[in-house]
Amino acid sequence: MNPREIAARFAAFVWYSEVAAPTKAAPEEARRLALENWEAFLPVAHEGLGRLLLRIARMPSGKKRRTRNRCAAAVG
């Protein structure tokens, strides 16, 4: 899958979860509707979001995130 397609699928899932089904009926229903209709979201899908989602999906679950210690940098 290319990044725009992934972003479109994610956008469709979020839209069906939050807007189309505000009663939170079932995530499975939102997933099904998003899989069937993600093409409608392709024109507004952002390729950068798709790349970010791909990077998150590839990240090992046990991997620590790199963070800067801002307090130490400000003091020293």
Query: What is the H-and-E element order?
Result: HHHH
Low-confidence stretches: none
Class derived from helix and strand content: mainly alpha
Q: How widely separated are the two ends?
A: 46 Å
Q: Strand content of the residues, in percent?
A: under 5%
Q: Helical segment tally?
A: 4
Average the pLDDT over all residues and give the rounded result: 81
Total number of distinct structural domains = 1
The description of the largest β-sheet is: none
C-alpha Rg (nearest Å): 17 Å
State the share of residues found in helices, binned by percent: 55-70%
General form: extended
Total E-strand runs: 0
Characterization of this structure:
The chain has one domain. It has 4 helices and no strands. It has helices at residues 3-20, 27-37, 47-58, 70-75. Helix 1 (3-20) crosses helix 2 and helix 1 (3-20) packs across helix 3 (47-58). The chain is extended. The termini are far apart. The mean pLDDT is 81.
Structural topology:
Elements: H1 3-20, H2 27-37, H3 47-58, H4 70-75
Helix pairs in contact: 1-2, 1-3
Brief account:
This protein has 76 residues and is an all-alpha fold.
